[in-house]
Amino acid sequence: MADANIAEENKMGVMPINKLLITMSVPMMLSMLVQALYNVVDSIFVARIEEDALTAVSLAFPMQSLMMAVGIGMGVGVNALLSKSLGEGDTEMVNKSATNGIFLALVSYAVFLVIGLTLVKPFYASQIDNGKIVDYGVTYLTICCTMSFGVYMQIIFERLLQSTGKTLYNMITQMTGAVINIILDPILIFGLLGAPRLGIAGAAIATVTGQIIAALMAVIINLRLNKEVTISFRGFKPDLHTIGRIYSVGLPSIIMQSIGSVMVYGMNRILGAFSSTAVAVFGVYFKLQSFIFMPVFGLNNGMVPIVAYNYGAKNRLRMIKTMRLATVFAVAIMSIGTLVFELFPDKLFALFDASEHMLTMGVPALRIIAVHFPIAAVCIIMGSVFQSLGNGVYSMINSIMRQIIVLLPVAYLLSRTGNVNNVWWSFPIAEIMSLICTVYFMLRIKKEIIDTIPDGVQ
Q: What SS3 state is found at 31?
């Protein structure tokens, strides 16, 4: 019995990698699939208000992406530090990572509360000159920003569970929040079951309600079941050394994902020169691609603590096997996504009540962009390896080059041809460049870190 308990407590160091990666990742992949589902359902219901409402939600994406970048980047830092500290047996740092992470989540919410109260309208007005779309957008995004405490608490407490290998509970909290959102969407948007008809505001309220309930569940599960982490704020003071270690990994991730916000903002402006429908097509693509990318991100979330734990435990063989297996799984998932986008683009757009004009523009868009999915799979997994080994700056540099230095300029130049279909080729072009950078950085990581670690045992 004692041996069984030790194996359970240290499964990231002893469980067979195939079983461990599946055990850690599948719950996260399922929960992220549900997350992707509710993002798509959100837009499907909003599209039935009218296309302008769908465009408004699409234009909110850069700010929502920035909001998530701040939370997820902070969570990545906490995850890497906490998992590494567990591998080293440093209980004090494990607990400091948790309490300072919660503090940083509250600070993040305070920032977006201010943004939600002051900057939402200028943000929309800078992207599109359409009063109706701006009004829709201000209503939607103000609610999402000012009520974002739920998403930040959800992120940090789910990361604490993930860092100690309890990803099943992550799945439960995320799926609960997503299901609540999906149920509330039609009720609040269209005024069903005696509820007031709130339109686009109902979509935002459904979203934040799901996040708040998921956060409460994650807090309760941590306090009751996550025995590896002790959360206590008695005499708490922010620890600058711990915060520095969190952001040494997390800040590059924040910058990297924030760059994604800049990219989407720039693409919205480029596509807006063609029509608001082009912006809506781009927004629909981002919703649909989440079905493909979210499972890979779930795989990442299962992989990172395994690699970080075995890095701390000095076990190179387990690290390498985890990285290889995760890459194979990711490429397989992305290849399936490419096939779906190539074969059924019209069926996908039909979900959003697409007009004939949107279909004409959207079908070739999906087919062109989907070419890069398998390449992106390799880049995503290797980028997370960089982060789990404390070299998140490599991921940041790669992201800057792909999305800012290559994708946006190429998209702008292709837009000058006057054919919107040409703009979509900027995605495959940028991803090829990203792969080249990823391979280069991986070779450096292998030489500087991985090859210096003892083999250990599998």
A: helix
pLDDT tens digit string along 78-115?
Answer: 888 888 887 777 788 888 888 898 999 999 999 999 99
Report the distance separating Cα 296 and Cα 327, nearest Å: 9
Whether 138 contacts 130, CB under 8 Å:
no
- Residue-wise pLDDT tens digits, 381-393: 998 888 788 777 7
CA 305/CA 388 separation, integer angstroms:
7
Are 79 and 159 in contact, with CB atoms under 8 Å apart?
yes
> Torsion angle of alpha carbons 154, 121, 412, 69, nearest 10°?
-10
CA angle 106, 202, 196 (to 5 degrees): 130
| Nearest alpha-carbon partner for 21 in 238, 310, 368, 285 | 310
Neighbours of 117 (CB within 10 A): 11
The 3-class SS string of 131-176 reads HHHHHHHHHHHHHHHHCCHHHHHHHHHHHHHHHCCCHHHHHHHHHH
Distance CA 197, CA 356 (A): 28
Distance from C-alpha of 394 to C-alpha of 402, rounded to nearest angstrom = 12
- Determine the straight-line distance between the first and last CA of the chain, rounded to whole angstroms: 22
For 101, 153, 156, the CA distances from 232, given in Å and listed in that order, are 12, 16, 15
* Spatial distance between the Cα atoms of 292 and 336, rounded to a whole number of angstroms: 8
What does the DSSP assignment read for 282-331?
HHHHHHHHHHHHHHHHHHHHHHHHHHHHHHHTT-HHHHHHHHHHHHHHHH
Q: Is the pTM of this model over 0.85?
A: no
Closest by CA to 243, choosing from 69, 67, 72, 78, is: 78
Residue 126, φ and ψ in degrees, nearest 5: -75, -15
Number of other residues whose CB lies within 10 A of the CB of residue 457: 9
- The span from the CA of 319 to the CA of 298, in Å, is 18
